[in-house]
Specification:
single chain, 111 residues, alpha+beta, three-stranded antiparallel beta sheet, 2 helices, elongated
Length: 111
Amino acid sequence: MSAIETMLQNEYMRLYRTVTRLREECLQRPRGSLAVKRRGNGFYMYLVKREGGKVVTEYIGKAGAWKAKGVEAKILERHRYEAELKEAEGQLAKLRKMMKASGVFFIEPSR
């Protein structure tokens, strides 16, 4: 096996582990988006998401409360991880094409 083949296989495994880790991170963060609604004199935050084809609204708390800020931070983290995941999956697809075109043998790791 040449040095280039070894390098391609190592890069493939690195990207595969990165994609797997990013998917796990996304699953640990809340899905949906935040909605701020005014009720009376106060502003309240709700988490809006889909569950089984239905839109579900979950009460978070007053806007600016610690819990609301925590949920907002987790949602922003999820968006960041999703962007990184999309980029890593694109790189992995390009690498698969390169390896297939050059005839480098690779085995899809088991999940």
